[in-house]
Write a structure and sequence with these properties.
Helix content is 15%, strand content 39%. It has 7 helices and 28 strands. The strands form 7 sheets. Strands 1, 2, 3, 4, 5 and 6 form a 6-stranded mixed beta sheet that branches. Strands 22-23-24-25-27-26 form a 6-stranded antiparallel beta sheet, with no helix packed on it. The protein is elongated, with a radius of gyration of 30 Å. The N and C termini lie far apart (63 Å). The relative contact order is 0.09.
Length: 380
């Protein structure tokens, strides 16, 4: 005979074995107010009142007791006998309340003791793996994906319907929208999936909607279930402002890797020849907050021996200006391309991120462009 049996551990270990006899049983109770503790009972068939009494919840008739067992979550009356060996009591929940609230998970109704329940608690109670997503059914709008930190209002009109589905998490990585079937992904794996070289010397920044950005390392894990994740932003480690002359009268050829990357981006792209110069143009690039313009066309002049020769600077139409009125440095020069005036941004690589033909490409140059544009409004 065991002296003290941990009921929670036993209940989760094997669905077939019977409850061993013991001199006492340790059961766990959570009350929603920060209490989460195990205490001993001496009876394998206690009443609801005995469980509440063991945890000093008095008077017992003012509490609602819930049992998480092998059949899910159920309410237990004070005089109701609980057969631990049969119902596999993993844990109990106690709430000081005069009523219960209800919701469904995958059409199965369950009780709760407060007006709100967190997505994390639903996952805990019903053992929902990370690879599945939780959703809250909506009537007149799209169903809501429940993320970490979200809560469901059980006191709202009607019965709240929660359901699960095979997970699908998205992340925008340097303009490429990626889809994952698990919510955790390393920064390195995200870059590789986006067609980027993770060892090229990037500074990686995770951006959130309405929250401070976070710097992340290559081996860090991104939890895509976190609320408000917007995108993974990259920038070269060393970039400076300056003036340089762009190559002229050159032919160019995009690499297969460049074309594959551009095909995954949301913007339209084209190449044009104007006055013997060949230009790559990214159309309709959406600008971050802080600019007076909403979107811009971005042109890059491609040298004939690219990628052996570096890509240098970039050109914007319309000319960009800041809502603050502050001048943007090194953007005073103009370039006419196919009859349209473009604003030249002189931004150049230096130091550890000087152009490396073995690694750099139009892909990494677009990263420099996006960083330079974001840098002016503190969005990088």
């Amino acid at each position: 005979m065991s002296e003290v049996l941990e009921v929670e551990d036993w209940a989760r270990s094997d669905d077939e074995k019977t409850l061993p006899k013991a001199s006492a049983y340790r059961v766990r109770l959570w009350d929603g107010d920060g209490f989460d503790e195990k205490r001993q009972i001496v009876d394998a068939t206690p009443t609801g009142a005995q469980i509440l009494d063991a945890f000093e919840r008095h008077p017992v008739n003012e509490y609602a007791l819930l049992l998480l067992g092998k059949d899910g979550l159920s309410a237990v009356e004070p005089d109701e006998v609980i057969d631990i060996s049969d119902r596999r009591a993993e844990r109990f929940f106690a709430f000081r309340t005069d009523r219960l609230f209800y919701a469904t998970l995958d059409e199965r109704r369950f009780p709760w003791g407060t007006t709100r329940i967190s997505a994390e608690m639903v996952r805990l109670i019903f053992k929902i793996p990370d690879r599945k997503q939780l959703l809250l059914a909506k009537t007149d709008e799209p169903d809501e994906v429940l993320e970490s930190g979200d809560e469901i209002d059980l006191d709202a009109e009607g019965l709240e319907r929660i359901f699960t589905r095979k997970g699908e998490w998205k992340l925008l990585v340097q303009g490429v929208l990626l889809t994952f079937d698990v919510p955790q992904i390393t920064v390195r794996d995200a870059l590789v999936k986006a067609g980027l070289d993770p060892d090229q010397g990037w500074t990686a920044i995770l951006k959130f909607v309405g929250a401070p950005k976070e710097s992340v390392q290559l081996n860090d894990t991104i939890d895509l279930s976190r609320k408000g994740i917007e995108k993974l932003w990259l920038r070269p480690d060393h970039v400076n402002n300056g003036e340089a002359h762009a190559p002229v009268n050159r032919a160019f050829e995009l690499r297969v890797e460049d074309e594959a990357y551009l095909a995954r981006r949301a913007e339209s792209t084209e190449t044009i020849i104007d006055g013997g110069k060949r230009w790559f143009i990214l159309r309709g690039y959406v600008l971050p907050d802080g600019y007076r313009q909403e979107a811009v066309d971005i042109a890059v002049l491609m040298p004939p021996s690219y990628p052996a020769a570096q890509l240098d600077m970039f050109f914007c139409s319309p000319h960009l200006s800041l809502e603050s009125g502050r001048p943007i440095p090194q953007t005073q020069s103009r370039q006419t391309i196919a009859g349209v005036s473009y604003q030249r941004w002189s931004r150049h690589r230096s130091g550890a991120t000087a152009w490396n033909p073995a690694k750099d490409s139009l892909i990494s140059h677009i990263a420099l462009i996006e960083d330079a544009i974001a840098r002016e409004v503190g969005a990088n």
